[in-house]
Amino acid sequence: MKKRILFCFAHPDDETFTVGGLLASLAKREDVETIVYSATLGDAGKCGNPPVCTKEQLPHVRKKELQQATTILGVDYVVTDTYPDGKLTEYETQLVDSIRLIIEQYKPTVVVTFPPHGISGHRDHQAIQRATYQAVTSMDHIVEQLYYVTVVGRSNRYGDPIENIDIVFTFTDEEAKKVREALLAHRTQHLSVERVFPTIHHDSFHKFQNREYFIRAWSKESEPPYPF
């Protein structure tokens, strides 16, 4: 039976910004299936400059961008919800129930989400973290481990010190090209992509030296097996 890993995020593009390298790597394995959940369709986001679409079209377009990006990364299942972008803190109880339903349906043994600070400090990121933690720990008959994806060495007040990191996942240059392609698929969000990754349009692009960082947030076992 294949291991299933659920990635819970707030917006289309969160998956590529945070765990794109891991997703591209897991896609090569026959013993793992991945599920990406986006709680919103990113309706409060920008439409690009020049605009890729109208504001009314944005949710539909961002859902399509998510589908394109996850196809590039080799994700097995994509689940989208329609919670209001920017207002997840008002829907945390319902969000917990939504995540529980996904866990019940797909039965992942490992779940990954944002850390409590949300990496960027976005309140939606923080809300999905809290809801995911509550859902996972209430369904420990299915889920065995919960991890936070984070960043290290940021100059702002978000991120985590290297000594708190449990897993440094390294991916290949080939997988980094997949990440670049997936980031570019989120066309409406190109301003954010270009701000975080100034070399995104260059062949020299790499995502944080091809590393992604994870903190073990919860586990059924005191010494859990490697999750990925």
How would you describe this structure to a colleague?
With 228 residues, the protein is α/β, with parallel strands linked by helices. The chain has one domain (3-219): 3-Layer(aba) Sandwich (Rossmann fold), CATH 3.40.50.10320. Helices cover 35% and strands 18% of the residues. The protein contains six helices and seven strands. It has helices at 14-26, 58-73, 92-106, 123-137, 173-185, 190-196; strands at residues 3-9, 32-38, 77-80, 110-113, 145-150, 167-170, 211-219. Strands 3-2-1-4-5-7-6 form a seven-stranded mixed β-sheet, sandwiched between helices. Strand 4, helix 4 and strand 5 (145-150) form a beta-alpha-beta unit. Helix 1 runs parallel beside helix 2. The longest helix has 16 residues, at 58-73. The radius of gyration is 16 Å and the shape is globular. The two termini are 15 Å apart. It comes from Anoxybacillus tengchongensis. This is LmbE family N-acetylglucosaminyl deacetylase. One of its GO terms (molecular function) is hydrolase activity, acting on carbon-nitrogen (but not peptide) bonds, in linear amides.
